[in-house]
Design goal:
mainly alpha, 14 helices, about 80% helix, about 0% strand, transmembrane, membrane, L-PG_synthase/AglD, cell membrane, transmembrane helix
Length: about 350
């Protein structure tokens, strides 16, 4: 009884956090912005297009994970990948950050393929890494077309410059690591063997190294996963642009959204709030002020909030999969919840 009560209270607390954050964000919006939004016509077809774009992005992300799982030698049908991915997307709304569902995916695969437990975890980690790498590439591409520093405020220019340097360093480091792990030959295998005997980190190297090296035998599959990551992030940019166009007559341009949205997504990826709620709105609102070459009256907070509503509608699909899930899926979800509470 006490365990059940604790689980109910924990679930209520998880749902209360995003609700409180959304309430605070709505309270922060200026009355003038509400008036401006209410007075201008809405294009609901564009809002539907935003939902369609988001669904395409979600489908591409599920496809990417399925490809990476198969590269690990684990059988997974595309339908199963979509079912599990939808449930994970739903779970991310009640966990800190955007990684809540990853634990469930790893546990499910590990339970189904006991001999591939480490490979199952590796597929989830690499899937997350591919998504982040694709996001960084899109941030870099967006910054290349960003306005020159002379056209924006000095404080903003400093911020953009720092973002460019940080992005360049992260992409350079990520590319080097990927090149070594995926393209490296026997020397890398010997390095992993040597690292496995080191104190402290040896166990981690021996556990994680071999599954990551599996992608050495599947460079085409891994490259396809990177392309899918670009597709995912690109469709999310287009989705938020459609939201902005559906609400406002003169929001930032599509090219400017390719600067704004990836940076905002990068900020929201920090595991601080459920599904990045609050972080995304704050980042988009600030970037709406500093990135557009022509100042816009559009509220970045409102646009991001409506975008979160689009994602919530997408998560309803995960609800349908959740209620129709079999005993195996439900058992994996319960195990993930127990491990999350324990940690």
């Amino acid at each position: 009884m006490q365990s059940t009560r604790k689980k109910i209270l924990l679930s209520a607390f998880k749902f209360a956090i995003p609700a409180a954050i959304i309430g605070f964000l709505i309270w922060r919006i200026e009355p003038e912005q509400w008036q401006q939004l209410s007075e201008q016509p809405k294009d609901y077809w564009l809002l539907l297009a935003a939902l369609a774009s988001g669904l395409i992005a979600m489908s591409l992300s599920f496809t990417r994970w399925c490809v990476l799982v198969r590269c690990q030698g684990i059988e997974l049908s595309m339908l199963e990948a979509f079912r599990l991915g939808s449930i994970c997307f739903l779970l991310s709304f009640v966990s800190a950050g955007s990684v809540g569902g990853d634990l469930f995916k790893a546990i499910f695969l590990a339970k189904r393929r006991p001999g591939k437990r480490v490979a199952a975890v590796a597929s989830v980690l690499v899937d997350r890494g591919c998504g982040l790498y694709g996001l960084l590439l899109l941030v870099a591409g967006g910054l290349l077309i960003s306005p020159s520093e002379s056209t924006i405020a000095n404080d903003s220019a400093i911020g953009i410059t720092q973002i460019k340097w940080a992005t360049g360093i992260l992409i350079g480091s990520g590319t080097a690591v990927l090149a070594i792990l995926i393209l490296g030959g026997r020397g890398v295998d010997r390095l992993i063997t040597w690292g496995s005997d080191l104190p402290v980190i040896g166990k981690v190297v021996s556990t994680v190294g071999p599954p990551l090296r599996m992608f050495h035998d599947h460079p085409v599959g891994f490259g396809f996963a990177i392309l899918l990551s670009l597709g995912v992030q690109g469709m999310l940019v287009i989705s938020m642009y459609f939201v902005a166009r559906g609400l406002y007559t003169s929001p930032p341009t599509l090219a400017e959204h390719f600067v704004i949205v990836p940076i905002g997504m990068l900020v929201s990826a920090l595991p601080l709030t459920p599904a990045g709620i609050g972080l995304l709105e704050a980042a988009i609102n600030e970037l709406y002020k500093i990135v557009p070459a022509v100042p816009t009256a559009a509220s970045g907070t409102l646009v991001a909030l409506v975008f979160e509503m689009v994602k919530f509608v997408m998560a309803i699909i995960g609800t349908a999969f959740y209620w129709t899930a079999g005993a195996e899926v439900r058992d994996s979800i319960e195990t993930a919840e127990v491990e999350a509470v324990a940690s």
